[in-house]
Design a protein that fits this description.
- The structure holds 2 protein chains of 2 kinds.
- Chain A is an all-alpha fold.
- Chain A has one domain.
- Chain A has 4 helices and no strands.
- In chain A, helix 1 packs antiparallel against helix 3.
- By secondary structure, chain B is mostly helical.
- In chain B, 85% of the residues lie in helices and 0% in strands.
- Chain B contains 6 helices and no strands.
- At the A-B interface, helix 1, helix 3 and helix 4 of A face helix 2, helix 4 and helix 6 of B.
């Protein structure tokens, strides 16, 4: 069964925001001006990380909602777990590599 | 001597307690959507509760992490388990946002899937909540590692007479 627009938009926006968050971790650590910019703008880099991740999620939810895209159950579940696992692998992998 | 206020202890404990309540809400939703005749109203109320609990957990964690964690961080990094911060805290503080996003989306998803949940088609809600639950367990394990790192660091400092 095809899911309604909102579920499809939310899960795709989640995927984009999840990847954004993971990539931002690496960028913040490797390129300090980004880290410092978040710290300056939000008082702490971690708060800036969270707020900008939520903003990315909201923006893409609206964008995908406007496309009228409809995903089926299996597609939604695959995108969900892809977002979760990619986020975890990039973040945990990055810090594990830097421990070694 | 280092003083630890009751407010600080209660504040940090509330973060963990809210996380525990969120995990309980997640388990309850999983059980409910697996039933043949799920109670939609209950699933919706639990999904809203879960979202609120995760948001409150983020706010209380932020309060502790931004304002008070610095002392523990320095002790952990100088102690016998520096990876408790370098890996444990760094991973925990960042993967948390995955759960925050999913918990925020959950009530909207539950609401828009109302008719399907009522007839037992709760696959999407089940997987979304399962991801939140497994993430919560991983966060809990990382919190244990960080606590051990702090304990080891303070012990080493005490033994050294610091």
């Amino acid at each position: 069964m095809r899911n309604n627009h909102l579920v499809s938009a939310l899960i795709l926006a989640f995927f984009v925001a999840s990847l954004y968050s993971a990539v931002l971790v690496v960028v913040k650590e490797e390129y300090k001006p980004v880290y410092n910019a978040l710290k300056t703008a939000f008082g702490h880099h971690w708060i800036g990380h969270g707020v900008t991740t939520l903003i990315v999620f909201a923006i893409f939810a609206f964008i995908f909602r406007a496309t009228n895209l409809k995903l089926n159950d299996d597609e939604v579940v695959w995108i969900l777990w892809a977002g979760v696992l990619l986020n975890f692998i990039i973040i945990a992998g990055y810090f594990a590599i830097h421990l070694a | 001597m280092q003083e630890v206020s009751a407010g600080l202890l209660i504040g940090s404990a509330i973060h963990a307690f809210l996380g525990l309540l969120a995990i309980i809400a997640a388990v309850w939703i999983l059980a409910e959507v697996r039933r043949e005749d799920p109670d939609y109203d209950l699933v919706y109320k639990l999904s809203v509760s879960l979202a609120i609990l995760v948001w409150l957990s983020w706010i209380t964690a932020g309060w502790y992490y931004v304002l008070h964690y610095g002392v523990d961080k320095a002790v952990i990094k100088a102690g016998p388990m520096p990876y408790a911060h370098a890996f444990g805290m760094e991973v925990k503080e960042h993967i948390f946002y995955t759960g925050l996003l999913l918990a925020t989306a959950l009530p909207l998803m539950v609401s828009s899937l109302k008719e399907r949940i009522k007839i037992g088609e709760g696959k999407i809600v089940f997987h979304t909540v399962l991801a939140i639950l497994l993430g919560g367990i991983v966060l809990d394990a990382l919190a244990g590692l960080i606590s051990l790192g702090a304990k080891a660091g303070w012990m080493a400092k005490a033994i050294a007479g610091g």
